[in-house]
Design goal:
This protein is mainly alpha-helical. The chain has one domain. It is built from five helices and no strands. It has helices spanning 3-48, 50-53, 64-83, 88-111, 120-150. The protein starts with a helix and ends with a helix.
Length: 151
């Protein structure tokens, strides 16, 4: 084999790998921004339309309005942290934990006679979206951690 061909082949392979890693990082960075904006927006909605969130708070919990405001404030704080490079890892971890904490509510809603909002089908869709969000935030946290190790 020609040595020049091997060198060119190695060059192309290594640069393609770098390019692919770069695109993968870009995708997760874009998703990080989208999730952060979504969290900030959703958190603000807790203060703008608290009655919308009332059906999601289980009946047996006291102080429903306080729970809605506190979870809204947490969403705004964690979404903002996700946008700040210094706090992004903690923001991602906090959002991940928050999504896990909200998961039982979505599961409960699927099995409820009357779902909190909409139909049983809507409850299934919200549950699927919740799992998707958990996965995305987990990957974002891993990407942030990986970037900090290589920096």
């Amino acid at each position: 084999m020609n040595v020049r061909f091997v060198n060119i082949f190695i060059y192309i392979c290594t640069h393609k790998t770098i390019f692919m890693k770069s695109n993968t990082l870009k995708i997760w960075n874009v998703l990080k921004i989208v999730i952060a904006i979504f969290m900030i927006y959703a958190g603000a909605q807790h203060f703008i339309k608290p009655t919308f969130f009332m059906p999601f708070v289980p009946v047996f919990l006291p102080l429903k309005t306080v729970i809605i405001y506190v979870s809204g404030a947490a969403e705004i704080l964690l979404g903002t942290m996700l946008l700040l490079k210094k706090y992004a890892k903690f923001g991602a971890l906090g959002i991940f934990i928050l999504l896990i904490l909200f998961l039982p509510i979505h599961i409960w809603d699927v099995f409820s006679e009357t779902p909190a909002i909409g139909s049983k089908q809507a409850a299934f869709i919200r549950l699927a979206i919740q799992f998707l969000l958990i996965f995305i935030v987990y990957k974002i946290k891993k990407t942030i951690s990986k970037n900090k190790q290589t920096s």
